[in-house]
Amino acid sequence: MLENHARIMKFFSTADEVVGRKKLQKMIYILKKCDIPFEEKYEFHFYGPYSEELTLRVEELCNLGFISEVKEDKSNYYQYRYRVTEQGEEFLNHSQVELPPLEGMINNMKGKSSRFLELVSTMLYFDDLSKQEVEEKVQTVKKTQNYQETEIVEAWDFIDNLRRQTLL
Amino acid sequence: MAYKDEQLSEEKVFKDPVHRYIHVKDQVIWDLIGTREFQRLRRIKQLGTSFLTFHGAEHSRFNHSLGVYEIVRRILFNFENRPNWNNDERLLCLCAALLHDLGHGPFSHSFEKVFKLDHEDFTKKIVLGDTEINKILRRVGKGFAQDVADVINKTYENKLVVSLISSQIDADRMDYLQRDAYFTGVSYGHFDMERILRVMRPMEDQVVIKQTGMHAVEDYIMSRYQMYWQVYFHPVTRSAEVILSKILHRAKYLYEQNYRFKQKPTHFLSFFAENVDLEEYLRLDESIVLYYFQAWLEEDDTVLRDLCERFINRRLFKYIEFNPNQQMTEWMELYKLFQAIDIDPEYYLVVDSSSDLPYDFYRPGEEEERLPIHLLQPKKDELKELSRQSDIVEAISGKKRTDHKLYFPQDVLEQLPADRPEKARIFEILFG
Questions:
Q1: Strand positions, DSSP E, B271-423
Q2: What is the pLDDT of residues B96-108, one digit of tens each?
Q3: Structure ipTM over 0.95, yes or no
């Protein structure tokens, strides 16, 4: 029952805590691109790949009391923190959903900024293009973010590292 | 004259129940409509299984695609000679509007979930692949097919163009709300589109609405809210969708178990293998799917046969409201009880969730991704976000509503012998 909910719960449980909605969106997308079987559908939005289904699913999990969402006032914006609740852990104990080991990848991503993950997920979104085309596309669709050459190089390294971890 | 500028000697019109007439003057648009890939949309219903709830809902994605094209055509007519609008983008907008749903397959929602497909990938493949559509787009100009794909994919550089067919107030939504309301026969879904089109203005990277049009937009937002809960998430439609998904799951499972189908599922083989090429994808439409469901009524597998019979003859699952948080233990008990009475809970005990966010606003710095609707103020070209101006919209802004239901075959449960101890317990859990 609710297998897709359970997969997202497994992610939260492994991550222990996720800070930021944008970061959450990009982390799941990146894992999805690493063939982790999340089924939330993504489309390209203002900050890169974004899944409305994921937004709604997380909201559902909060409403069900399986995840706690803490809204923090950061003076000029709000930030959200997510954690699995006791009820959520109980739900997971009943669930038979299995996922490949995620801990390494999640920890790598947690240490990065949402801006960086936005860049990585945008590059992965265009993974059917050549390296040069991907970079051109990033500069076109992410003009306002003004990504620097060093960030793009770091993002390629990050992607290569992810691919090694998932043996892609 | 360049192909992109060619006009038909006489304007063609399609009679349309929603927009009265759909006008075509561009040769390119006329040629695109005539392609096999676009004509295929006649055989894909816009609302999937909703026809089992609302018998009028037999309209196709062909109707809707023409409707979106017509709305964009009217918007662009109003944009001509306005600041911030470059009419060189006109044909691109019209093509993207016409072709935006090209990759939808039969009963898209279920097919995408079961076979892990994405209709947007197929739209892109049709636009860029070896197709009649692509040949026409390439005749328009170098890179034009890619531009059309980028607009549909929302990765086109000019966000104003993208926002015409993909934003919180776009031609796609304006058409499907009205069209679906018309064909389902419900009284929601109506709003004053003509007024909205008159007050739309192109800005740098988005379409904005003149402040004076706020009330028409309020009506549009409310009609969307109503349509989602009254039509799109109707529990009977969801029941049909649950059964449809389970048929596809069962057929795939049987195929993987080397089950010998009496009617070999030739058209589904690449779907089962999750390796669908474009030609096979285009070949599978809803008539073919329904043909197989009919044929599978003769199969030996009782689950497949029963599920097909339910879908074809509208013997749908019943449902109860279900709260996964409070009723988790009950659900687990039901699962075991179903197994004990030889009803496979994987196919016959299904929790289905529906959620919608009617309107979301953007708060600077917050990690939201939807561009809100902006109202253009009478003085100084100032923009104000809709929910800050409208009390009605504010009341539903950012509010998500979720609904969980548990579906099961009540008819089978009722036929269980009265003395089976499981029966009483199942009914007790389900109906209290």
A1: 318-321, 350-356, 374-376, 383-385, 401-408
A2: 999 999 999 999 8
A3: no
